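Title: [Solved] 4-deoxy-L-threo-5-hexosulose-uronate ketol-isomerase 3D structure

Original question kept below for reference.
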Amino acid sequence: MQIRHSTHPAQLPGFDTDGLRQHYLVDDLFVPGEIRTVYTHEDRIVIGGATPAPGHPLKLESAPPLRSAHFCERRELAVLAIRGSGTVTVDGTEHELGTRDCLYIGQGAVDVEFSASDEDTRFYLFSTPSHASFPTEVARFDEVDVLKLGDQSTANVREIRKFVHADGIRSSQLVLGVTSLAPGSVWNTMPPHTHDRRTECYLYFDLPEDHRVIHLCGEPQNTRNIVVRNEEAVISPSWSVHSGAGTHSYTFVWAMGGENQAYDDMDPVAVTELR
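Solution (posted by the thread starter after getting help):
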């Protein structure tokens, strides 16, 4: 488990390209045969990737930074199959996940194991501290409500699906969903916003290997950018915008943890205010 420490907005102007990437980009989550995790002190979120091979399941263990007997002792966890399909076994109960299906695992689960149905299977993990236990539950990509937004004239036609949220799968504080951009659309979360009560992380996927997303971060009047490849994640502190444009359409997981679960608790930033 890698550790990332919190940063102050005044530090951002001092980061060069390597500094930005070291603090905010997570670029090595999906390694065949491994579970990789990153613990950020921004709201004590853990993001991770599980990449099991068929016939060789991977068990999610605790790690020294958590100071716990098992991973979910004081945490809740969401799992999204970003590629392929497989099974997540929670305390002996198997949960089949197809591509883009989501599983929520409540605080107190002891044994969590990932199994792959094919060589391509990859599970994205997102975890927050939890102070209440909610039932483990599956949300199917094709069954959750779809919010359609954007316009082709601004290159941001997209579909938003919320999986774990106040009106969906119940959780203590974790919120997670998926946004899919239509062919020909490239902008996400523009106009941008911040939300001072939550940290948000983006995982970009379904992006061709020879394309990139230019992810915007920083305070609205002092922005920077990070070039992101397929299946890389960006940690966005509460004071930072989180927006971007790709050289191709893509999909991303947005997930948050913090003070509340109100989807619309955000501070909008007009495009004309950006610098």
